[in-house]
């Protein structure tokens, strides 16, 4: 009995020791593991980074961007030369290598606002984007920057909005400098960010993707940063507004995404950009009451609309 009691106490002491050590060991292992990243900390760090940027670069806040938003788009749809874009790749990649390559071009789109109640500046993420050129030309959805374009065009000031920015996979933050082109019909916008002396990694620009083409989405739905999903092109449609003569092009895919993925890149098997995320449309058996969900159409902006903004 005495030996059993002693053994029991020894086991208890050993278990308590494990309990005390294990959490620290797990924390140390996860901190140093290259596959697992704490993106939330990177977003928090963006607040201090952007605050210092505003101090060092007076006149580059959101009010200045709004005041000049129409001037930045004055040249029309042309935002650069086709030679500035990265040519399409021809070799297919396995999904692991494709992710490692394409994550460098995928971006988080964020905002920094001031809370007067708490007297605090806070950066947070709201959408996605993709790099087009080394010097900071990127693509996202029109609805991501629509409030900037409209408030700027109407000379409307919005209090407590300080900055818009993009963040790359490594946590580097690049403030938004301007909106170069906006296409509300096709939900596409070309933006320019301050690279702060760095060279960004642009996505290779692909061609048309026909139904059946394997595609991958690399975006940031609801804070799931750099989330990677696969699927295929399921449909290609267009519709023309008879009054305006404008045509809307939609590339539908089956890759999964949700809110926060707006503007995120869609790649083919070679890692070429073939579209950017736009929206989802849910189909219900009882649409009047939004009941009996059946499927969701995943609608994206085809890459040829982006290519048309660059001259030969």
Blueprint (SSEs and pairs):
Elements (H helix, E strand, L loop, with lengths): L1 H31 L6 H18 L5 H6 L1 H4 L7 E2 L13 H8 L3 E10 L4 E12 L5 E4 L1 H12 L7 E7 L5 E11 L4 E6 L10 E2 L8 E6 L7 E14 L6 E7 L11 E3 L4 E15 L4 E12 L1 H4 L2 E2 L1
Parallel strand pairs: 1-15, 8-13
Antiparallel strand pairs: 2-3, 2-5, 3-4, 4-7, 5-6, 6-7, 9-10, 9-12, 10-11, 11-14, 12-13, 13-14
Describe this structure in words.
With 312 residues, the chain is an alpha+beta fold. It is built from seven helices and 15 strands. A six-stranded antiparallel barrel has the order 2-3-4-7-6-5. A six-stranded antiparallel β-barrel has the order 9-10-11-14-13-12. β12 and β13 (272-286) form a beta hairpin. The longest helix is centred in the first third of the chain and has 31 residues, at 2-32. It is globular, with a radius of gyration of 23 Å. The protein starts with a helix and ends with a strand.
- Approximately how much helix is present in the residues? 25-40%
Uncertain parts: 14-30
| Average pLDDT, all residues | 88
Structural class: alpha+beta
Q: Largest sheet, if any?
A: 6 strands, antiparallel, barrel
Strand order of the largest sheet: 2-3-4-7-6-5
- The first-to-last residue Cα distance is 90 Å
């Amino acid at each position: 009995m005495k030996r059993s009691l002693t053994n029991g106490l020894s086991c208890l002491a050993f278990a308590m020791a494990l309990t005390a050590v294990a959490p620290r060991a797990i924390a140390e292992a996860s901190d140093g593991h290259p596959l697992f990243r704490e993106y939330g900390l990177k977003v928090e760090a963006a607040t201090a980074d952007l605050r210092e940027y505003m101090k060092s670069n007076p006149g580059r806040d959101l009010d200045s961007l709004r005041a000049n938003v129409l001037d930045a788009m004055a040249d029309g749809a042309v935002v650069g030369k086709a030679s500035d874009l990265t040519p399409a790749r021809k070799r297919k990649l396995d999904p692991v290598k494709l992710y490692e390559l394409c994550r460098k071009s995928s971006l988080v789109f964020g905002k920094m606002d001031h809370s007067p109640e708490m007297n605090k500046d806070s950066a947070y993420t709201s959408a996605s984007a993709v790099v087009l050129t080394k010097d900071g030309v990127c693509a996202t959805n029109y609805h991501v920057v629509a409030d900037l374009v409209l408030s700027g065009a109407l000379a409307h000031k919005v209090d407590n909005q300080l900055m818009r920015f993009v963040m790359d996979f490594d946590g580097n933050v690049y403030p938004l400098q301007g909106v170069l082109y906006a296409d509300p019909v096709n939900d596409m916008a070309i933006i320019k960010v301050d690279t702060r002396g760095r060279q960004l990694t642009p996505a290779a620009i692909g061609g048309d993707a026909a139904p059946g083409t394997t595609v991958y989405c690399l975006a940031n739905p609801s804070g799931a940063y750099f989330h990677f999903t696969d699927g295929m092109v399921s449909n290609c449609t267009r519709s023309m507004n008879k009054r305006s003569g404008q045509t809307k092009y939609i590339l539908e895919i089956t890759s999964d995404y949700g809110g926060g993925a707006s503007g995120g890149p869609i790649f083919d098997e070679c890692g070429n950009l073939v579209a950017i995320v736009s929206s989802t449309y849910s189909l219900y058996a009882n649409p009047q009451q939004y009941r009996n969900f059946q499927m969701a159409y995943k609608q994206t902006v085809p890459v040829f609309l982006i290519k048309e903004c660059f001259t030969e």
